[in-house]
Amino acid sequence: MIVPGTLYLIPNTLGAMYTADALDQVIPREVQRITSGLSYFVAENAKTTRAYLKLVAMSMPLKHPLQDILIKELNVNTRSSELPSLLVPLLEGTDAGLISEAGVPAVADPGADLVRLAHAKGIRVRPLVGPSSILLAVMASGLNGQSFAFNGYLPVDADNRSKRLKELEKRSRQEKQTQVFIETPYRNTALLEALASSCQADTLICVATDLSLATESIQTASAVQWKHLLKENKEPDFHKKPTVFLLLAG
After folding, report:
1. What is the largest distance, in Å, between two alpha-carbon atoms of the chain?
2. What is the pLDDT of residues 181-240, one digit of tens each?
3. CA dist 222 → 110, 136, 167, 249 (Å)
4. Alpha-carbon distances of 117 from 3, 88, 134, 152, 206, rounded to whole Å
5. What is the per-residue pLDDT across 122-162, written as a single tens digit (0 to 9) for each?
6. Is there a contact between 1 and 88 (Cβ–Cβ < 8 Å)?
7. CATH number at residue 23
8. Cα–Cα nearest to 119, from 77, 90, 79
9. Which of 36, 120, 176, 233 is the right S-S partner for 60, CB 3.0 to 4.6 Å?
10. Residue 4 · residue 124 · CB < 8 Å
11. Whole-angstrom Cα distance, residue 8 to residue 178?
C-alpha cells in the first residue's frame, strides 16, 4: 500500500527580495530546508516560483536540479475538474509544496480548494510558518485583534464600493469588529478617498503597505484625519504597492 505524500503549505515573501539575508528575515530556515528538498510544487505562477526557488538556493542548496523540479499552476483560471490531477503525485507517495504568489497559501488564494480536496483524499496537510499580510496588518493597526473579518476585494464601481463600505462600517460598529480588505494596487488612492468620504468622522482607518519589506509603511488615523491628509496631498506612498486596508468604527 502506497502512503500518500505530505502537502506542505509553503509561505512566500510579500514582495521582491534579492538576497539570502533578506529572505532569512521573513522565511524561517526550517521552511527553506523543507522547500529545498521538494521535487513537486503546485503554484499560482510557475515563473515566479522558479525565481523564489533560486532565492532559497542561495543559502539552502536544492536537492533536485531546478530544471528537474515539476511545477504545475493553480490559479483563478484553473477549473475545479483539474484539481484531482494536481494531487496524483501525492497519492503516489511524493511530497509536494503549495505556494502562492505572496504570503501564505490558501488564504485569499485559490489554493484553498486544493487543500480541501487533499483532506478528502486522506493526504496529510502541513502548514509552514511565514508572513501573512492580513495578520501583520491587524497586529500593527492598533485596531481590534480579538475580532476581525477579511473581506477580500471591494466593488470597483464607486457607488457600489461606497455602499459596501457603509455596510462594513455598520457591521464593525455593531460587532466591534475590525474589517479588513485589499485593493488592486493602482486603485489604492481611490479606495482611501472612498474610505475617508464614506465613513463616519471618528472611524479608524489603517493603511498598511509593503509589509515586511524595506519600504514598509503603516499608518492609522480617523476618517476625518485621512480626509485632511488627502486634501494636503499627504497620502501614503502606496501607489502600485500591495496594501491592506482596515477599519474599526467607534
Report:
1. 68
2. 999 999 999 999 999 999 999 999 999 999 999 999 999 999 999 999 999 999 999 999
3. 34, 20, 18, 9
4. 17, 12, 24, 22, 36
5. 999 999 999 999 999 999 999 999 999 999 999 999 999 99
6. no
7. 3.40.1010.10
8. 90
9. 36
10. yes
11. 30
Q: Is the pTM of this model over 0.85?
A: yes
Whether residue 76 is contained in a domain is answered as yes
Domains of the chain: total? 2
* Pair 243, 213 in one domain: yes
Cα–Cα distance for residue pair 83/75, rounded to 1 Å:
11
Q: Which cell numbers in the block locate residue 146? A: 480579538
Q: Of 64, 95, 127, which marks where a domain is finished?
A: 127
Which cell numbers hold the place of 198? 464614506
**What HEC string does 98-109 produce?**
EECCCCCCCCCC
How far from chain centre, in Å, is Cα 184? 13
Q: In the listed set 127, 162, 178, which residue is the last one of a domain according to the structure?
A: 127
Domain hosting 214: range is: 133-248
